[in-house]
Amino acid sequence: MMYLRQxxxxxxxxxxxxxxxxDELQDIRQQIDALQxxxxxxxxxxxxxxxxxxxxxxxxxxxxxxxxxxxAAVAAAPAPAAQQEKANTFNxxxxxxxxxxxxxxxxxxxxxALPGFQLGGEAGLPAEGLTLDETELVVSATVDQLFYGRFTxxxxxxxxxxxxxxEEAFVDTLAMPAGTALRFGRFYSDIGYLNRVHSHAWDFRxxxxxxxxxxxxQYTDDGLQFxxxxxxxxxxxxxxxxYRGSRFPGGExxxxxxxxxxxxxxxxxDVGSSHSWxxxxxxxxxxxxxRSSGHGHxxxxxxxxxxxxGDSDLTIADFVWKWSPNGNPTERNLILQGEYFxxxxxxxxxxxEEGDSALLDYDGRQQGLYAQLVYQFMPRWRAGxxxxxxxxxxxxxxIDVGGLDPDEVLEETAFNSDGxxxxxxxxxxxxxPSEFSRLRLQYNRDKSRPVADNQWTLQYIMSLGAHGAxxx
Amino acid sequence: MxxxxxxxxxxxxxxxxxxxxxxxxxxxxxxxxxxxAGEIGGEQIKAYSATTGLQDVHHIEARPSLIARLRQAxxxxxxGAGLESGWLPVLQRRANNPRVQTGSPGxxxxxxxxxxLDRPALVDRAAGDVHAGGNPHIQLxxxxxxxxxxxxxxxFTEIDPQHTKDYESGLASFLERWQAALARWDAQAQPxxxxxxxxxxxxxxxxxxxxxxxxxxxxxxxxxxPPSSAHLSKLLGQLQNNPAAVIIRSPYQSARPAEWLSExxxxxxxxxPSTVGGNDAANDLFGLFDDIVQQLLSVAP
Lengths: 472, 301
What we know:
The complex is a heterodimer.
Chain A: H1 2-15, H2 22-71, H3 80-83, E1 93-105, E2 129-132, E3 135-142, E4 147-158, E5 161-173, E6 180-188, H4 209-214, E7 220-229, E8 235-243, E9 260-271, E10 275-292, E11 305-323, E12 333-353, E13 356-378, E14 381-400, H5 406-412, E15 423-434, E16 437-447, E17 453-465
Antiparallel strand pairs in A: 1-2, 1-3, 1-17, 3-4, 4-5, 5-6, 6-7, 7-8, 8-9, 9-10, 10-11, 11-12, 12-13, 13-14, 14-15, 15-16, 16-17
Chain B: H1 2-21, E1 24-28, H2 31-41, E2 45-49, H3 64-72, E3 75-78, H4 88-94, E4 107-109, H5 144-159, H6 164-188, E5 196-199, H7 205-211, E6 214-218, H8 229-241, E7 246-249, H9 255-265, E8 269-271, H10 285-297
Helix pairs in contact in B: 2-5, 5-6, 6-10, 8-9
């Protein structure tokens, strides 16, 4: 542009050599020279600035490298992960448990029964063939500085229909003083050892018979729990619960709270760094009104069955011992565990068949236990053995036969054990490619009924998403 | 009279008990933080380590004894970055102790004071035991302890302001000795620059960065997935072409994969303490790095 202008001026001067304009032209030329100098100066200045900037950048870079070399990770700033705040930052932890199994029985699973015991809650056998077992959706998070909440939804098929059940929906306090805490909502009771353990964390495919017979597999209900942890080096936890009592082994609750009450104590500790143990003692008082057999997966005559009204008191002693070399369970570990149940029931049984009802006086002394050993003999592989035993000593007397045949009533009520003590041997082996998946093969020689049932199960358990830490 | 003096004695004993109780109780998830707390807090604190140097901190049972200890703690000091996510949340919920809940003054995650290495671009369980926040084994770069020590001393003074002077002098004394040790280790470790190493698990990136070691292979095909024979055979082929100086594993990892490879590739296998208590020499933080440097020097080219 500048050159163009000079050329144009030069041409003008050549074409019009008029002396009168020479002075003027010189003025113009001087102005142009001044302009040119000014531009050049500006460009030089810019170039200099660029240079210094580059030098500064290089210096900063080497300084940064220096800093990295000497101080390395020692930057006091929090990790960048903590700085990003997305809309989902505060989303709760979500996990989904997929479970299914392939089952085979030598006896009809629809006729499953535990003579002497009323099957309630979820008690029963999974369907034969390939079935989807319970699918669990768990959502949990700290609510704020005071509360923690968890929600567990269980989905399972029952005779072709999908049943949705809120298994847990509870809130824990986090900031109560002096080692105390409250839990409220719906939750698995802390009685016994296995009652609060979710099915995906069981060491066998099924619950011990004592749980199936006396707690309908697992007792969960709407209630309130208070517990206290002692400020001692040995672990001591004491607690009590009050429930609405509208779920097995509760009946049809008439009160709003307190039909089921519990007290429990847990004691635990370590022996060296390789052994740890926990022992517990629990008591449960149930005030039952019309406790009927549940919607279990076994055969249930909708119109008939037993309805118990009265007191049912259960005592549980539990013990678990875990071993792992130096406290590293990943390679090898061993779990020895057992529980003993004793139950007293006193009240009446309304036995119904085809619209007619008989009333019986029922007084039961029942007990049972299981003992199991699970050994992880190499990474990912475990094997286990379990023994179950139950015994019912029930006194039954007809108060009002109500048009039924008295002999038939005494024969057909679930409380008639017929002198049979249910027992079961179980063997299992499972393989866990990671913490999040498990495949299991289990064999039961099940003498729940007088005739032995050979049960085979191939089971899968997959957990997707956040995986909550497991309790001891 | 006798009974009264007895009572007085009892009272004195009780008071003495109270004085002992006034110590700040520290529950450290790992031995290195218990050791650091001891260096800074001295007599004013009582540190308990939930794990030992022989344990894999990724996989710890939420044992009753740990709940009982956390119940009494004034300060919980852990690595964080997901290292303890398999057990610590249960302890926090079950201990009924509001002082150590996440976000309370009595809760400290050391990983938040340093920049983490190996932050994965892709977070997927198919990639093994990945830590979304980055590699949590920060205790293996001694330089990280400088900023962490300062943060810990600061936290002690917040929790127990009466003994601010003690914590300040504890920190100053530790930093002075630590800087001197750092200079010594740096000088000793010169021959280790660029030394190629094979590791069992990716626990050592911070050590590698500090000493300039070069990790050329990992025995675990994916983090947390046990070494498979197929993977080891592949590594053997690789190492026969490009040998490494040493195969490193932590005390809690199975010796077999490292020994298998060591025999065939003719590379020494070494058990390095990954924290305090990892072996007899690593009896404190200084001993830990002394031993690591000495052991590595024994195989330096």
